[in-house]
Amino acid sequence: MRRFVIGVFLLLLVSPFFGWLLDLHVELKENRFPAKAPELALSKLMEREFFPQLERFFDDHFVFRAWLIKTKSWIDYYVFRTPSSPLVHLGTDGWLYFRETLHSYRKDECDARDAMWDLARRLHTLERVLLVSGRQFVFMVAPEKSTIYPEYVGLPRSRSGCKKSRYDFLLEAFADYPVMNFVRLDTILVQAKKEREVYYRTDTHWNSLGSLIASGALLRHLSPSRWMELLPDTKPSTASRIADLAQMLALDFTVTVEDAETVLYRTPVKVEGRKQLMNRRPRLRYTATSTPKMPLLPRAVFYHDSFGAELTKFILGSFEQLDVYWTYDMLETPEAVEDLRSSRIVVVEVVERNLADLTVNPSAVAVVLADDLAPHPPR
Prior knowledge:
The chain is an alpha/beta fold. It has one domain (about 95-375). The protein has helices at about 1-20, 40-45, 50-60, 65-80, 100-105, 115-130, 145-150, 165-175, 185-190, 210-220, 225-230, 245-250, 305-315, 335-340, 360-370, 370-375; strands at about 90, 95-100, 135-140, 180-185, 235-240, 255-265, 270-275, 285-290, 300-305, 320-325, 345-350. The longest helix is centred in the N-terminal third of the chain and has 20 residues, at about 1-20. Residues about 10-15, about 15-20 and about 60-65 have low confidence and may be disordered.
């Protein structure tokens, strides 16, 4: 027995070597880069940070690390019904939620009232600036999954306090500072979910159907009589998707979704990859051909976050030109300034949880569009 224990111990000691030798590897997707190996030099050995760096490198590159993490996550989820990540909440019936969004669900964001009134005031002013400059403006809020599917969260809501979310406060603030071109998506999606699921169960975002519905709402607002012509033809297909919440749990919840859409644009579309911003998020430009039989919407700039990224694929063929930016990169570069000046339509989309982080600077926009705002002498 003693020899057996010693043998097992020695086998465990040498197992990483054979794992590296045999190149045993299990993929583990993480939202970070693994630690780099420290520089091997005699002079570095005397530095205080060398051995901590070496330890971090070993921890990140240990050959069985991914196996151990996945095994623990599997046991946590299927045996103990607990999440292996503090970022994820386990709902009911297999639904997962991003824990950060649960404040909205609980309706306990009482301290957000003043910030939402300020945001409504700035959006109201921004809309006036854009309209006076001759541009159309649309503002959209992508609802959290817990807003559309609260029934699967499995937590009690707050019984005290204001019983309001920041989105509730924003809707109230619009009574004082109206935004005429606000496309309200939550009521549309709540109605649509009666027919089919509009969000992924194990992902933060709406699915292709939810995105298509949001796209239709945007185009219907911009062109009430022709919006269905501007939407691309779609047909059901299947696609595999690695759900982000499942990925946070290190679980292989790669789902095959039946509601993914194959998009067939009505006119030819060209895509142009453009210079990246400082935060390394790409900027894209889509151009489509307008014809007498199929006139398109004029040039637009679309500020979006991760929800709007899915929406983009359904609207990129609806405009003569569509410049796409990350919502939080507005006016960050000379190219962004020029694209805003050249646009005739401005669309801003932000996810519900990031309302407090949305930077809206009407004064800066007014400076950019000064030539369009200045009164012109009569001819």
